[in-house]
Each structure stands twice: as C-alpha cells, then as structure tokens.
Amino acid sequence: xxxxxAHTATGxxxxxxxxxxxxxxxxxxxxxxYDLAEAVRAAGRDPEVRCVxxxxxxxxFNAGVDIKELQRDPGNTALVxxxxxxxxxxxxxxxxxxxxxxxxxxFCLGGGVGLAGNADAIVAGEDAVFGLPELDRGALGAAxxxxxxxxxxxxxxxxxxxxxxxxxxxxxxxxxxxxxxxSELLDSALELAAExxxxxxxxxxxxxxxxxxxxxxxxxxxxxxxxxxxxxxxLTGTADRVRAGFGSASGKEA
Length: 254
Description:
Number of helices: 11
Radius of gyration: 18 Å
Mean pLDDT: 92
Oligomer: single chain
Structural class: alpha/beta
C-alpha cells in the first residue's frame, strides 16, 4: 500500500498532491484508509499548502474497501476497523483545512464516492464512472456522499440498482467541474488547484471552515449512521448471503 505526497513544480505553488497507489484496483485495507487520512490531514496542516489534489495511480481512482481483508476475519474486528478507518479518511478530506480537488479516473466506487463526494471540487477523466455497488456486496454506506453529487431521487435509484453514472452525467448535474481526456487529468486538476492556491492562504482556510459550517448535512454523523446498518447486515448473516449470491435475491430475507 502506498500513499505518497509531493509538492508540485513551478506553476502550482502552494499545492500538495496526495496519491494513492494500491494495486490492482486501489481497494484499500484498514491501514490504507488510516494512512490516507493522515496524509490529507498533514497536507492541510502545512501552512505552505493552500490546496490539496487527491489523485490515484493505476486503472481507477478507488474501488472501495478490501473485501478480502474482511473475508479473512472470522469475527468482526476487520469490519469495525474498516468502518472507523473509512470514516476517518472521508472526514479528513471534508475537514481538510484547505480545499481538496479530487482527480478521478476510471472507476470511483464505494469508498471512492466517499472521498470524491467529500472533496471541494472534482475534475474527472472521460473514462470515470461513479457508483455504489454496496447492495451487491452485502454492505451499505456512502449514500451520504453520493447525495452530494446527484439529486435525491437519482441517488436513491443508483443506490438501489447499484448502477453507475459517468463523469459526463455528473458534469450535467454540476457536481464535476470539468471532464477531460484521462491523459490530461492530473494537469487539469493541478490547473484548478493552482488557481485556488493563488488566493490568500489564511482567507482560504476561513472560507473552507465557513462553507463546511453552512452545510445542511453533518456528513460524518450521517455516514456513521449508515455504517450501523452495514454492521447489522453483517451480524445477521445478510452480508455473507448477498455476497455469495452476487447481489441477487436468494432465499428469504433475514
């Protein structure tokens, strides 16, 4: 698991890039989520940083949690751990002291929606798709963050069906700033970040706190509420039954 941070070259002064690289699909284990949270927090605490770009290496932005790690745990330790770790990572992006620009390519699923949905701005590659396949994986969660990207009824339809939406569709809803060829994604995200970073650093921090303060939904509390139902699905055996049936209805409801 790799979470790396780097300052940018000339032309994007005050911008820090946080990059996740966890092959094959950037599905993160418990420690990976904590590492990501700490990297974002550290960037936001740096007085020289005025904007953070959250990026990922490989074929996709993020495929959620490492399901294999959960399957290897006969109890609930890993589930509790990943619940807490995801909440920390999502909160770190949301509460970062400076604006966060998400550079999203390929798949942005599950936890990826949690990260992108809590970012301040999204630049997406033409190949980017967003969705919550949770009901096919015996889980729940991140509807809180999907609701920040699409209108309420579309969010519910996407959630119930586990369908995805394209970057172009999100652009039409106004939740993606720009859709660009994937080869130009990082440069485009850095261009936006550099424009933001040219503002006064102290005033940017005040603006971020002010905007978070007027949000109509407490995203951390809302997401933790969702996670309680994920835990219930696991305790009742529903999660294992659904995963075994690849998301389809099988047997009677628990």
